[in-house]
Amino acid sequence: MTLEQVTLEDARALDATDPLAAYRDQFTLPEGVIYLDGNSLGALPRATPAALADVATRQWGDRLIRSWNEGWIDAPQRIGAKIAPLIGAASDEVIIGDTTSTHLFKALVAALRSNPKRHTVVSEAGNFPTDLHIAEGAVACVPGARLNVVAREHLAAELDEDTGVLLLTHVHYKTSDRFDMPGWTARAHDAGALMLWDLSHSVGAVPIDLNGANADLAVGCTYKYLNGGPGAPAFLYVAKRWQDALASPLSGWMGHAAPFAFEDAYRPAPGMKRWLAGTPAMLSTAALETALDLWADVDQHAIATKSAQLFDILAAAGDALGLDCVSPRDPANRGSHISFRHPHAYALTQALIAQGVIGDFRDPDILRLGLTPLYLSHEDVWRAGEILRDTIETESWRDPAYSQRLVVT
To answer: Is the pTM of this model over 0.90?
Structure first.
């Protein structure tokens, strides 16, 4: 099957042998909607509403404060251990809580403080903006530190004896370009720097092996491919070899060695617990844990295989329309979304949403379509390609209503 010959029958044949097809029934998907934005907000797992109701009515309503000793207080470590296999980490190297931005700040400041002889954080121009914003704030908290943001092709040349941390997003939020994790980690280490990865567009989308790559630190969100829900707690990975050497700059009471001893002075807890700060948000934490239970037996290589198949279907549709696909064609070099450049990408995105194909827009000219293998079928994606073709050929996107900018794009 060549890309030019993808047919509805081809898509249905792939669905008939799809080892992930049964997971679709584990999600609530609106009738008449093809959801291609799971790379921004994952779909709702069917089990989540009941889990939230249990937390609200039984754990909070009936058990009240007793629930802290009945599973709440250990949730950050327990749930971190459930994420660990998805990122190639040991169960005691991951913890959840806070946000990706907060974890990134903690990791950057801790890494810079660990080696006062190195002052520079190197990162990529065009990285997800919050990563660069947080990095700006982090270096401002460490005397003498600075942020060096350069184009991707110049990153290697900028690693030198002053580099303390190389901060990279594994899969680019806009283009879907994927860094070679082992290769770039080795480059950072060869320069004497620590390697910090943002896995927000990777986890649940592509196979990840942090320990195999010898990574030092990583952060990531859980509301995209992991389906943890809007604002779900983020995760932080610290390689075991660094856990005693690094100290969180946010010395909150949950990270104290004995939080209920109520000591005035701070003593960091051993291991990953020292990275906790405030009280866990148990409603969102429960939603995340329920979503992660779906991943317990998911084959990550099946995820990668299906992602590549879904990409090929939409890439063929885009090629037939003459669209400029800015995502790498080699699946080893990308994540699990596909991006097309179009001069009126915002209006095109809104026109597709009006027809039930939900993707998103990234400034200035990118139509971004997420490919989430757990609940998308090949037929879904084929039909999305047909709707894309009709929208462009009829130029229905020219309706002025589709050009009116909303706050969230």
So the answer is: yes
